[in-house]
Write a structure and sequence with these properties.
This protein is α/β, with parallel strands linked by helices. The chain has 4 helices and 7 strands, in the order ββββαβαββαα. The longest helix is centred in the last third of the chain and has 13 residues.
């Protein structure tokens, strides 16, 4: 899958680290897969699944190329630095969160007054 090939040109791409397919419930480095969504202010679309076959941070980041934000339960400092340097914004939760709930929050943020990090992502996509 080439995440950079998008069917929504004005969407942000978000990856959720998951082991159960419905919740953000995985550590970045031990996630079984990442579910990718494209989100606009009025909709979201499931883009696909990125399966993770091995615990190789560099390979995982390569597979997430084109993603704007990645959600997870935890991440090591070296991996966090690598994803930030790759242009992916990391969001860490302390406990499991529903992917559907987070998608609704993101749509709401995009349709109202997005926080600075989302504004920056949107500006980067336009330029």
């Amino acid at each position: 899958m080439n995440i950079q090939t998008s069917f929504l040109s004005n969407a942000i791409k978000v990856a959720f680290a998951t082991n159960n397919t419905t919740h953000i419930d995985a550590h970045f480095g031990s996630a079984k897969e990442f579910h990718i969504y494209e989100i606009t202010n009025d909709s979201y679309n499931f883009y696909g699944v990125v399966p993770i076959a091995s615990k190789d941070t560099d390979r995982t980041i390569e597979l997430l190329d084109g993603v704007d934000i990645v959600y997870f339960i935890n991440i090591g400092p070296a991996a966090a630095a690598k994803i930030i340097n790759h242009g992916i914004f990391p969001i860490k939760y302390k406990e499991s969160v529903s992917i559907d709930e987070e998608l609704a929050k993101l749509m709401n943020m995009l349709g109202s007054n997005p926080p600075p990090f989302i504004k920056k992502i949107c500006e980067r996509k336009v330029s």
